[in-house]
Give the backbone structure.
Amino acid sequence: MVKYCRQTAFARDHFETFKQGVPFVQYIDKLYEQLCPEHYAKQKAIAIGTDQNYVIDGTSFTTVTVNKNFRTACHQDAGDFRDGFGNLIVYKEGDYDGSFFVMPEYRIAVDLDTTDVLFCDVHKFHGNTEMKNKTEGALRISFVMYYRENMIKCSSPSEQLAEIKVQKNGYYTL
């Protein structure tokens, strides 16, 4: 059993704003299903088997990471569903150079534009290049959605709360 399953700080503190983004996540989920059906089927199956309090409404995702003008070092993802594919969606504003998504093993660099969606094996080395602003206030926001691997082991929120109370107090009261 996972010790503590919870909403992210953003979802907890800004739940109404989070809910406004759910149709976007659902749209990416549909693209994932259409473009990567084998990976999607495995990920969707595990998402269906997970307490639905931890899955983003009707999708195969539990988590969204949002990065603003952020350069990631070359890395391999860990902690997300091993048999799934990663995705990257970018929103651009202003003019800049760089921020190419790179996969050194394949010797590729992809310049994602607004409305582009990229699916790939994020368990291979990847990252993005430095962003150099050409205009003040240039913006690159990237969205990454995934299934956090051990979420299937999470008990319901009420069971989680009871477990936390027992751990804290040594007993549980109603």
